[in-house]
């Protein structure tokens, strides 16, 4: 039997509510329904904070080396709204506070913030594919523990795919994203790779594992070629209708010419 548009919209809404999406807008706090689009007229807002500190970084061979104490606090939000059945608008303001001993720079202010849209491409039998374009303001490099240069404004283009399924009696989903980020002012770009696995063992609790990675193959004196991969583990608990809280932690598991970051993350989710 062919599904009606109303049935497909209701299914998408239930799936987004069941998984709460895959997080990736901010280093550890932004969120979205991954490749899934929000139903028209519905949205979600996620506000969160993350703290990371480290005295180690990955050198050009991927070995951990000591660096001056590096501390970073991030405060951000992620908003997405279903404009049509095929278009979801997104926005992600952020604030960063970085502290390092002199002569390395310390800074506070607007972090890498963005706005864009996600476009539906395909959806059938639990599988969904979409594309997203996001314009981003300038922000700190993820190599902050090494030099903390500022990144120029950029354009992030990516493809997204997701699959919702049942793991025994538990709702679950997997998601993957791949794209390229183009920077202004002649700064080298980089590939981005993200993934997420979510399982709901009980009705109101989501167990979420995520990975965030970057590969920058072309470098310069200020931005040498680099790579890093972060993992994040968290729990998302729905404590009231349309409200959830997330608690977890993230760390850099491998890298090259990149800082090793690790710390806690917390976020509040509101679906409307």
Which key phrases capture this entry?
single chain; 272 residues; mainly beta; two-stranded antiparallel sheet; 1 helix; 17 strands; disordered N terminus
Describe this structure in words.
The chain is mainly beta. The chain has 1 helix and 17 strands. It has one helix at 5-19; strands at 43-58, 64-82, 87-92, 94-99, 107-110, 114-124, 127-136, 139-140, 150-151, 154-167, 170-183, 190-202, 205-216, 226-240, 243-256, 258-259, 262-271. The strands form 2 sheets. Strands 1-2-3-6-7-10-11-12-13-14-15-17 form a 12-stranded antiparallel beta barrel. The chain has a two-stranded antiparallel sheet with strand order 8-9. Strand 14 (226-240) and strand 15 form a beta hairpin. The longest helix has 15 residues, at 5-19. The model is unreliable at 1-32 (pLDDT under 50).
In short:
The protein is about 5% helix and about 60% strand. With about 270 residues, the protein is mainly β.
Major β-sheet strand ordering: 1-2-3-6-7-10-11-12-13-14-15-17
Continuous helix count: 1
What is the straight-line distance between the termini? 31 Å
Order of helices and strands: HEEEEEEEEEEEEEEEEE
Uncertain regions spanning at least 5 consecutive residues: 1-32
Average the pLDDT over all residues and give the rounded result.
84
Alpha-beta content class: mainly beta
Number of strands: 17
Q: How would you describe the oligomerization state of the chains in this entry?
A: single chain
Radius of gyration: 19 Å
Shape designation:
globular
Beta-strand percentage range: over 45%
Largest sheet: 12 strands, antiparallel, barrel
* Helix-residue proportion: under 10%
């Amino acid at each position: 039997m062919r599904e009606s548009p109303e049935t497909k919209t209701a299914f998408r809404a239930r799936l987004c509510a069941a998984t709460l999406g895959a997080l990736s807008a901010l280093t550890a706090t932004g969120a979205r329904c991954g490749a899934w689009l929000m139903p028209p007229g519905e949205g979600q807002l996620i506000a969160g904070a993350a703290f990371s500190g480290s005295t180690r970084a990955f050198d050009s061979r991927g070995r951990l080396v000591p660096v001056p104490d590096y501390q970073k606090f991030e405060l951000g939000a992620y908003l997405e709204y279903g404009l049509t059945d095929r278009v979801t608008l997104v926005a992600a303001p952020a604030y960063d506070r970085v502290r390092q001993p002199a002569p390395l720079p310390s800074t506070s202010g607007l972090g890498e913030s963005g706005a864009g849209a996600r476009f539906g491409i395909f959806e059938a039998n639990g599988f969904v594919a979409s594309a997203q374009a996001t314009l981003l303001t300038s922000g700190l490099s993820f190599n902050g523990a090494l030099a903390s240069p500022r990144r120029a404004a950029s354009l992030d283009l990516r493809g997204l795919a997701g699959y919702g399924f049942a793991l025994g009696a538990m709702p679950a989903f997997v998601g993957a994203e791949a794209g390229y980020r183009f920077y202004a002012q002649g700064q080298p770009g980089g590939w981005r790779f993200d993934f997420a696995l979510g399982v709901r063992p009980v009705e109101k609790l989501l167990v979420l594992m995520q990975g965030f990675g970057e590969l920058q193959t072309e470098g310069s004196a200020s931005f040498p070629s680099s790579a890093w991969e972060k993992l994040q583990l968290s729990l998302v608990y729905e404590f009231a209708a349309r409200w959830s809280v997330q608690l977890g932690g993230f760390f850099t598991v491998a890298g090259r010419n990149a800082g090793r970051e690790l710390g806690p993350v917390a976020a509040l989710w509101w679906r409307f």
